[in-house]
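User: Hi! I'm working on a homework problem where we have to compare a predicted structure to a textbook description. Could you give me the structure for the chain below?
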Amino acid sequence: MRSADTLQRLLTAAALTALAGCSTIGDSVKAIQDTVVTPVANAIAPAARTRLTATIPGSQERDAERAAQAEESGFDTMAPGNVSPMVAYLATEDCPIGGKTFFVFGGTVQLFQPWTIIDTIKVDHTWSLAELAEHAAKWGDVQFDQTISID
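Assistant: Happy to help. Predicted structure tokens:
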């Protein structure tokens, strides 16, 4: 059985992957936005206390610790309202930002880098499982720095 922190990290990673896949399509979207009048699509991956996060095992203990820190500092980093200013800014008519994904936590806003292709394997037919096992298995050892800095 996985620990609550591991489960929370897995859920967060899954959510961020889904957001990134849906919102950061890259230069082609920006080119379309530059030539056609369309709404600008941005995404925010918020870190905030919600009804959903309250269902994660161990969240009550973490929320109690954060509430004590908020009492001391006078700033509740997990308050959902901390995300609202970035939402409002991205919605302003003069906002120059489009096609980006942001991580918002407390008073911190971070810009995610879009997906980047770092390696390719290619054949001139439909892959077989055996071929993928031979050629794609090397990616199992590839490591990425996927840390999110929460100061």
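For your comparison, note the following. The helical segments are 4-23, 27-35, 59-73, 84-91, 129-135. The longest helix spans residues 4-23. Good luck with the assignment!
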